[in-house]
From TrEMBL:
Belongs to the protein kinase superfamily. CAMK Ser/Thr protein kinase family. SNF1 subfamily. It catalyses: L-threonyl-[protein] + ATP = O-phospho-L-threonyl-[protein] + ADP + H(+); L-seryl-[protein] + ATP = O-phospho-L-seryl-[protein] + ADP + H(+). GO terms for molecular function: ATP binding; protein serine/threonine kinase activity. Residues 300-324 form the NAF domain. It comes from Clitoria ternatea. GO terms for biological process: signal transduction. InterPro entries: Kinase-like_dom_sf, NAF/FISL_domain, NAF_dom, Prot_kinase_dom, Protein_kinase_ATP_BS, Ser/Thr_kinase_AS. Keywords: ATP-binding, Kinase, Nucleotide-binding, Serine/threonine-protein kinase, Transferase. PANTHER family: CALCIUM/CALMODULIN-DEPENDENT PROTEIN KINASE KINASE-RELATED (PTHR43895), CBL-INTERACTING SERINE_THREONINE-PROTEIN KINASE 14 (PTHR43895:SF160). This is non-specific serine/threonine protein kinase. Gene3D superfamilies: Kinase associated domain 1, KA1, Transferase(Phosphotransferase) domain 1. It is an enzyme of class 2 (transferase).
Amino acid sequence: MREASSTTQDEVQPGVVLFGKYELKRLLGVGAFAKVYHATHVDTRESVAVKAVSKSKILNGGFAANVEREISIMRRLHHPNIVNLFEVLATKTKIYFVMEFAAGGELFHEVAGKGRLTEDASRRYFQQIISAVKHCHSRGVFHRDLKLDNLLIDEDGNVKVSDFGLSAVKGQIRPDGLLHTVCGTPTYVAPEILAKRGYDGAKVDVWSCGVVLFALNAGYLPFNEYNVTVLYRKICRGQFRFPKWFSPGLRHLLSRLLDKNQDTRITVDEILEDTWFNAGEYRPDRGLGNCCYEFEETRTGFKCLNAFDLISFSTGLNMSGLFEDPNVSDLVERVVCREDPERVMEKVEEVAKEERVVVKRKRNGGGAKLEGQDGNLIALVVVYRLTDELVVIELKRGDRGGGCGAQFWEDKLQPLLLELAHKPEVPVSR
């Protein structure tokens, strides 16, 4: 067993211990941007899955926002049939997702090995999948890539929904009430995505669930052609055939799941009332407790903080700095103030103008970059809305903001923070 020092931390291979906590055991899978390993916690010996993501590939491919969104989504979902994210760690070149380990592997391999499952076995998996999907939708999350490869099995034989890399949140819905990004796996994609006229994220997930249920019972996919044009034509027309062994109840449910018209397609709530779905033992939302963590973007673009965001400022789920300019230092200061977010940004611009510092506002209005006349980064300013009355101001100093930049930080930005900081009234004791 080899300890990964700070200089060799990015040497990711079996036998290495990451951050003194996780010993890598074996490679589980390889993707375009990441490798997934089975690992164990050094102290507890608990098994975990570690996804090592290459920062350079993410940044060069323009996918930083996708990864950041994936982390944000996973930390708000808490359900027995969704892979749990324990923490996120990072080095100069890699980001590590430490997640729940599913010992049974992908549901795809079970179907491939057995050919097809019995209706009772497929029903049990499908009930768990729908329970997880309902939880996602209730939190404003749409998976958009549900497939056998992204459905894992734990040591107890239960489904764990994974890979939220293509997921969307309510904040991405356009004014027409629909999502518009074309994404997904060809054999699982819904016809309305192919039509490119906008789609309902919840109905897209329902379609994919229908493809999964069909495959579980048939041993093959309902739409599977080598010619992509032919494949998409059949999907858009809803052309598929039921195997002769499908029961009438299963056929009825699948015909509603794979309805090419998203307006008449069955909803998750209607699935929960279906006769075939409710045959056998079904305990919905078992073990959920009282979890409810919401995330929204305001119309002005200033992010609203929730309980998990506050915790993330000081735990392993902190995403700050994961994808930012390497010229940003570790020096971060935060204060709570009782100013309007837009007014905070105006005050930052006022002090910057006095010193001829260039302010580059984010397009959504939630923050800005402060640069010197030479183009060097002095600081990043981000404003989060905490409550209707309070906001959090976060300042991150630039590594190359020396000289005038350092003076501006000390003489202008820090005093501005002190001026804006909320000072709650303390009652005078008698």
